[in-house]
Amino acid sequence: xxxxxxxxxxxxxxxxxxxxxxxxxxxxxxxxxxxxxxxxxxxxxxxxxxxxxxxxxxxxxxxxxxxxxxxxxxxxxxxxxxxxxxxxxxxxxxxxxxxxxxxxxxxxxxxxxxxxxxxxxxxxxxxxxxxxxxxxxxxxxxxxxxxxxxxxxxxxxxxxxxxxxxxxxxxxxxxxxxxxxxxxxxxxxxxxxxxxxxxxxx
Length: 202
Ligand SMILES: [Fe+2]
Ligand SMILES: [Fe+2]
Hints:
mainly alpha, 202 residues, Four Helix Bundle (Hemerythrin (Met), subunit A)
């Protein structure tokens, strides 16, 4: 006797991978745009392959978020800790921004769908850099340090949200997996090289 087949359902509470989330969001957004053809659209948005630059940047984002959280929890009494943390954060932020500004942004900016969000990205990097410089010039015991660091944290978190939303979603839809792998390989090389501050936006 044939057993009754259980009804398959997708659990909304189930945790998905970052790549899975991007794919789902992209499919949802694209599906809304074209109405009935979600099945067709999902085949166009490629999931992560080897040397995936987006997965690499998202890994950096998690690290930056952890450092920002640590910084927010410091107090004026932990002046040494603040200075060390800021130094680490500044170095990692610059390395991350360079990967985006030297590799992803120029490649993505050529696509008209992404141009605006990429230009916004450059400006958000600039604001974060200014705030970091101001913090570096400020004594960690200064009563404004905590407030300024909080503004930096909120600024970077907002930027990460926009990148992982609209920008990376667009990158996956306009670039082939092969093209993304080329960009990812370039970023991996940069990760192994000493940081260079010059950016030369294009
Ligand atoms: Fe960025
Ligand atoms: Fe980023």
